[in-house]
Design brief:
The chain is of the alpha/beta class and about 140 residues long. The chain has a single domain, classed as Rossmann fold. Helix content is about 25%, strand content about 30%. The protein has four helices and seven strands. The chain has a seven-stranded mixed sheet with strand order 1-7-6-2-5-4-3, with helices on one face. The model has no long low-confidence stretch (mean pLDDT about 95). The structure holds adenosine-5'-triphosphate (ATP) and magnesium ion.
Amino acid sequence: MNNIFKSCCAESTEEIGKTVGRLLKGKEIIALYGGLGMGKTTFVRGLCAGMGISADVSSPTFAIVHEYRSNDKILYHFDMYRVTSWEDLYSTGFFDYMDNGVIVTEWSENIGNVIPDNAIRIKFSLGDTETERIIKIEGVQDI
Ligand SMILES: Nc1ncnc2c1ncn2[C@@H]1O[C@H](COP(=O)(O)OP(=O)(O)OP(=O)(O)O)[C@@H](O)[C@H]1O
Ligand SMILES: [Mg+2]
């Protein structure tokens, strides 16, 4: 099932993230696609809130991965911007995190063939105005 949302502003992108976050069971892989400033980190902020985790969400560009936790849920937030080879990817520990919690990856373009078929794929693109974004969500039922 495909779902396409139009976001008018950062708050709306965060709200869409929240909606997805509420639907998660706990071990999903969510691959985000779309260029600089498209709202991926903003979306993850909502995702985290929707999972019931309160955390300061920021781009893990240098750390590569940030971990956000509540009592019973974990969200691993990856930024693959600087990950350009298999060696890079292995050294992030990406494969060890699978099945331990929800994984969300920014710059999924960089690790294309590693994203499993059953992952949730979310594609961000520009809308008609400076603050409008089109958010296409694949792999979530009943959103
Ligand atoms: N509709 C929108 N959705 C999300 N962010 C928006 C929107 N309109 C404007 N913005 C602004 O665009 C910026 C998005 O930043 P954000 O860090 O979420 O992008 P990103 O896709 O993670 O970028 P990067 O690739 O650098 O990690 C913020 O400054 C936000 O206020
Ligand atoms: Mg980001």
